[in-house]
Amino acid sequence: MNILTACKAIQEARGPAILIATMGAMVAFDKLDAGQPRLNSVPLMGGSASLGMGLALAHPDRTVIVVDGDASLLMQLGALVTVAGKSPRNFHHFLINNGTQFSGLSNLSLPGRQIDYCALAAAAGYPITHRIQDEENLTMRIRDILSSDGPSFIELTIEPDPPIFGADSPQQDWSDHQFTRMGDEARQLAVLLANGGAA
Amino acid sequence: MLKNKFNIPASAYISALQRNSVDYVVTVPDWVQLAFHCQLEAGVEGIELVQCCNEDQAVCVAAGLRIGGKNPVLIVQNQGIYGCVNSIRALGLDAQQPLVFMVGQFGREFANFGKSPSLSRRNTVRYLEPVLDALDVRHWRLEEESDLPKIDQAFSYAQRTSRPAALIVGAPTGWL
Q: What is the ipTM score, two decimals?
């Protein structure tokens, strides 16, 4: 499964859940036109799980879906412990495990090899872990996962997209949107939650 | 037991948080604020404690709580601020979240109490205010009980401007 098909399955099952994404998953959800209630941890690798936990604590009546990246999680591996310490039942933590960083851009390797993320999550105190390796299984199981109590950790085995950067296609400038969108989304989400919208 | 005018009682800090409608304390514990932590861990009506593994996570959890309509305060120490500069940049400044920090001046010489931290021999003390200034994070020193109204000022400022604010706890909180 690739990141777009995985995020499509999540988006289709998401319903009114709050969606927190980062890095490649953010780009995929943009392509899928995923809207509010939504917040992206950008540019801030490693922040999505803790951001999601804050929202899950503030709104225990709402499902929170975090779609993390493997390189991002490795930056804040202790976040697994922070989340498990409070164990919000409305919290579901998906991990895009594509084994690369700057995935789909330059596909650099990660520190570490054969990391067992489900074992890490379980050792940190997540009571529920799943490893899902194909789109069919994800589609079949995701609604059950999201309707069950968490916190759950769902590792998705993802085939990295081919890199797009090279001598003939170097990096282009970023738009300001990349640096302002988290604030814009935070304000929209705060208003929506305050008004009890899209519950 | 150390007890002098520089040791603002933990109970006075608790009262200040309650006065400012704080409902969550998000923290990585701080040596300077140990008495404060102990009272919070023992349980304070209306305040839930969230312990984090590092200050990056604390900033993110607090931001999530803020976006969700809660009113958290972060309790960390000066070293923690140095460790989470990028998260403050991303969520406090870029995303304009009004995060209020209580920052213990870990390592401050007791002889420096009542003087400017810029006179400290220790980098961890001396660099705190310049780092906050570089980030354009407004800060207030809490040195004696008469400084407690600065807590109200910091919450008001953060809310009014949608910017982070830092309250610098200069000496060990008192065990009262």
A: 0.95
